[in-house]
Amino acid sequence: MNTLSYLNNANAAYIDSLYQNYQQDPESVDFGWQKFFEGFDFGRSEQTAAAQTVGAAPTDQSHFLKEINVLNMINGYRTRGHLFTKTNPVRERRKYVPGKELETFGLSDADLDTVFNAGVEVGLGPAKLSDIRDLLEQTYCQSIGAEYRYLRDPDKITWFEERMERSRNTPHFSLEEKKQLLKKLNEAVVFESFLGTKFLGQKRFSLEGAESLIPALDSVIEKGSKLGIEEFVIGMAHRGRLNVLVNILQKTYKTIFSEFEGKGFDEEEPFSGDVKYHLGYSTDVETSDGKKVHLSLCPNPSHLEAVDPVVEGLTRSKIDFKYGGDDKKIAPILIHGDASVAGQGIIYEVLQMSKLEGYRTGGTVHLVINNQIGFTTNYKDARSSTYCTDIAKTVLSPVFHVNGDDVEALTYAINLAMEYRQAFHKDVFIDILCYRRFGHNESDEPKFTQPLLYKAIESHPNPKEIYNQKLIAEGSIDAELAKQMEKDFRAMLQEKLNESKSEEKFSEVKPVFAGAWKGLRLATDKDFLSSPDTAVSTEEFETIAKKITALPQGKQFFKKIEKLFQDRQKMVNETKTFDWAMGELMAYGTLLNEGHVVRLSGEDVKRGTFSHRHAVLTLEDSEEEYVPLRNISDQQAAFHIYNSHLSEYGVLGFDYGYALANPNALTIWEAQFGDFANGAQIIIDQYIASAETKWQRGNGLVMLLPHGYEGQGPEHSSARIERFMELCADNNIQVANCTTPANFFHILRRQLVHEFRKPLVVFTPKSLLRNPQCISNITDFTEGKFHEVIDDNFVDAAQIKRVLFCTGKIYYDLLEKQQTDQRKDVAIVRVEQLYPTPVLQMQKIKTKYNQAESWVWVQEEPENMGAWPYLCRKLRHTELELEVVSRKESSSTATGYAKQHAAQQLYIVGKAFEAPAGKAVKKEVEETTADMANAGAD
């Protein structure tokens, strides 16, 4: 039965129409079809002559249909051949219907000796069906399965087919190259075996079963170097990391052994460190032709794929700053697990960045160590898709499925992938079908859950043994070479282990402040007692302000934009007072003018979620954009601003990586609303808050998180201040909630004035963006610095009976009450920097107001949220014993009812001042809440 007859019928009609067009005008069809029809006409004339010679009638029509069937077969192999490969080293493959039998394509064994002109399509010219099939079998159904026919770009499809079919996807390495593959396999296999025998019971997350990764990586570095690559940035989880560190990045074996011996800890260092299979490393390696290639392996926590966006951001940063925008000189390599590449949503977020202007890196080589199991979960329970790599198809990335036991096939495939990346600047995936020889870690028992699989794995030879036997069988080496390799390498490992044991204390040189970080240092407690000077001259300030508020002549902007810029010009030329947007833009403008690159990315950052920024203007009658901050001077630094895709986890990780590579740029990620950072909590926890402590990696990333209670419901009120505060220790991050444009201006500039780099979290306002009281005089920008604490300048210290400490937007609610009631007995003190907490400055406030009878922390957030839980703990051993006024504790950040919000706000403000109306306000809150409950408030 011809199970693909519907394809034959459709193709027959289509090809017949092409043939008719060809007969009328050969140039009207593609070159490939021209050659096919030329061959077909030639073949038909030969058949006609032969038929006339023997007195038989020519069989043009039946042969023509079979030519179409052969074309169907060719395209069938190209499209579905990957389903029938020999890629799984330890299991039988699933069966797929229809198969690849000749009958599937309307052919039979009787046609094997028939010459078909369809052979032109695979580069054979007119050829026997048997030869055509042999070529297709070798190309598409052996150790390499190729998925590429969905690419939609004919040039890319042709590129692959020409290379794969010309070589039949069969590598042809020289003897020296084969010996190098064996050498790297030997290192990979013996290193794991050595660790397993010398450090029994210690976790190492062995590469065993996937050791072919090492020679493949070694080869792609060589290949990449020949194609112009000067640097690779690698990201991977823990499995195989130690092997990659020593056998690819050339971290010394002695260092690894010392870490196993527990000698890497130094009591004098202010770091807590991390387990050895999370650590990163960087080095220069030399290729066979003497070229230097820089390799970086990024540190990664146990969140398996969290490193992916960090690698991409770091790579993009180096493309921008180190390589002048040339993405052919640096390439990211991401090494995934099969369960994580299918199960972790961050993969999709990162892939969707790959072609975006603000995030593309020229193509990533994705290697999947597909050991067919996730911890204890079988692959059938780990995904719904056919392959773990099917997500690659969402961005039209080609995928190669390769038998991990065939080191030559894997090396060939990864080299082809590198060629594709360099040619087309797009991502490519290699799915390495292998196995995990032991359990999830070396003390785990995998037979508990996969007894049959691990029975097969127990007796399965390792890739080195398989390749050694192959080389011996083909006469490339003698049987003693591999034995001597192993003996020599094992002896060297033992020597390095002995050296590591003989040292009482091990200390590895860690060049924390090298390269782009040269000149910077670690922060000290003293650095946070007071901020450095970040003012700019009046002349510079006004010059830049005029530049960024001017619209070019002859371009049509929206009337609202013209009015906005007229108002901004009035600030510069008349009032000399500036709102929040101008304070922010002036921070960027002055830094750009001083030669510092500024990058701002996030959802809708060009305009700003609250239409306050308007850093990028779109003309009314076109899609043309005008960016005032790029028009300050000819000598200014670059201003990069990108609206991101709807991603927090991925984009925050990317921008963290971007800041990691260039500490001298101001790199900012903005959340649309502050609580959107919830989706990026892994990056916040594992990198932003703890990377310096764990991995000695500083970072100056700025996070802008809109925050403030304005009756907009739970999700649009709180940026979860408490979550950031509970991460604060060891001066790890800076957390601020500014109340003035000038203070925001200074804290952004302070990021690059400091001699160190710390992440900065700013809870930016929403309602204050247009609050007429939230303004700063020009002298606030041209004199002074960032103020960690802002005292009350309305009151007389001698009259003060009550001091209110607060942060952020609630200050203006308290201020209105103070001014309206002329409460000269209550001082309002703003804590602008929540961490590092300015305890000494707060204590000076207490000394100043020594007549005060009560000291209160006032916040909008519920009592179990906001800054209070942290401050309550932080200040408990100081003289600053504070009461708290807040919303009552709650499981939700804020109410969604406008009336309830207003009543709660009135109560907080009244309670803060202990006003006579306080009880009445409280009663109003209770009555309002009861009324809403009875009415089923909506």
Automatic annotation (TrEMBL):
Record's keyword terms, sorted: Oxidoreductase, Thiamine pyrophosphate
Keyword Oxidoreductase: yes
GO MF assignments: oxoglutarate dehydrogenase (succinyl-transferring) activity; thiamine pyrophosphate binding
Top-rank taxon: Bacteria
Keyword Transferase among UniProt keywords: no
One example of a Gene Ontology biological process annotation: tricarboxylic acid cycle
EC number, UniProt record: 1.2.4.2
Cofactor: thiamine diphosphate
Top-rank EC class of the record's enzyme: oxidoreductase
Gene3D superfamilies in the cross-refs: 3.40.50.12470, 3.40.50.970, Multifunctional 2-oxoglutarate metabolism enzyme, C-terminal domain, TPP helical domain
SMART domains, per database record: Transket_pyr
GO cellular component term, pick one: oxoglutarate dehydrogenase complex
Domain Transketolase-like pyrimidine-binding: 578-771
Transmembrane segments: none
UniProt function note: E1 component of the 2-oxoglutarate dehydrogenase (OGDH) complex which catalyzes the decarboxylation of 2-oxoglutarate, the first step in the conversion of 2-oxoglutarate to succinyl-CoA and CO(2).
Similarity comment: Belongs to the alpha-ketoglutarate dehydrogenase family.
Protein name, as recorded: oxoglutarate dehydrogenase (succinyl-transferring)
Organism of derivation: Mucilaginibacter arboris
